[in-house]
Design goal:
Layout lengths: L4 E6 L5 E5 L1 H11 L17 H5 L13 E5 L3 H13 L3 E5 L2 H9 L6 E5 L7 H10 L8 E5 L4 H9 L4 E4 L4 H5 L4
Parallel strand pairs: 3-4, 3-5, 5-6, 6-7
Antiparallel strand pairs: 1-2
Length: 182
Amino acid sequence: MPPAFMGCTILGDGEIVPLVHAMGLLRWIDNRGSQPSQNQALPSRFAQSSDAMAQSPYAKAAPAQKNLIMVVDDSINVRRFLALTLEKAGYQVEQAKDGQDAIEKLQGGLTAQAVICEMEMPRLDGYGFLSHVRSNPSCKHLPVVMLTSRSGDKHRQLAMNMGATGYFSKPFQQQELLQPLQ
């Protein structure tokens, strides 16, 4: 994303609208004219290792793709907002619609640096996802940050006892959420 994109807002109908610093966007466009064509090469943060993609973390421990964070949430609006926040911070993002989808992506060869996971989802909730990841020897050290509307100590303690790396309740501060990922 160009540096002029400052974030986003969610309208009442669920549409996500980017927030742009107009002068910063004009400066970025002006500076792009003196750089190589956009089609020549992707920025390094989007480069993927074909070796890492070919290996399944369930078959053999594969190195995490540099700066790849998986966002697991059943709300598309939350996933998009988190993806924009993480991409602005320099991360590549893979989205999963629930815990089962996330497990399938990991079994398919996706290797992430960390996971941000909602607690309440259909098919497989955050506790189930966390339990599955922690029980797999090749993924048990994968940082999993839980994000939920449940702010009670009971839920926090359960998640942390199951091996969560961090626990945040909504609404969250962007800097606080990014800290355990660095």
